[in-house]
Amino acid sequence: MKITDVRVRKVNDEGKMKAVVSVTFDDEFVVHDIKIIEGQNGLFIAMPSRKMGEGDFRDIAHPLVSETRNKIKDAIFAEYEKVLEEKVEEAAEPAKE
């Protein structure tokens, strides 16, 4: 299984949730609403989840093997860094009149 596309759909500068991401596998299957969250020990990914009962959340889709989770995490963070760099470059460009 290969990750064939990572799209950072929404980037937030405020709050703990930094971005919402979609990941496509083998150009055939996509998982939406993976979140990049700022935690106490840095950034981490949270798989799509649903609220169950009194504040508990259960993942809707998630990798079963930690190696797969790491591949997904690395691909997401690489794309997120690109998006952040592009935002910095855009902010640094002088406004055209």
From TrEMBL:
InterPro entries: SpoVG (IPR007170), SpoVG_sf (IPR036751). Pfam families: SpoVG. Keywords: Cell cycle, Cell division, Septation. GO terms for biological process: division septum assembly; sporulation resulting in formation of a cellular spore. Gene3D superfamilies: Stage V sporulation protein G (3.30.1120.40). Belongs to the SpoVG family. Could be involved in septation. This is Putative septation protein SpoVG. It comes from Sinanaerobacter chloroacetimidivorans.
